[in-house]
Amino acid sequence: QHITYIGETNNIKRRVRQHNQLCGSKSTNNPLLLPWALVAFITGFSSSCSTVRRKIEQMWKNERDNLKTTFNRNLSLEEICNAGKSTVQKCIEEDLRFIQCCSLEITSNI
Hints:
This protein is mainly α. It has helices at residues 12-20, 50-71, 77-90, 104-107; strands spanning 40-43, 97-100. It has a two-stranded antiparallel ribbon.
């Protein structure tokens, strides 16, 4: 089983480092969850305003949580990534792109 975290930032490198130094979100500050790795992200926001990023973050979380409830089980990383892709497709007012950073087969064993 793996733990996933969906968050928003304007600096991914810094944010992953914060999570791995246990000074990120309250939900990621457990040393037993280390290390955190970036699996995917959404980019292409037209504004540096965090309001839009938070809206997209919440949409992705809702999509993930709805699937988890529907299937009544933990989701695979592929399913969580697909929820992110679905979120991007729903946001036609933004020129967003979903970027997958690594092979899901490799990260599924972490």
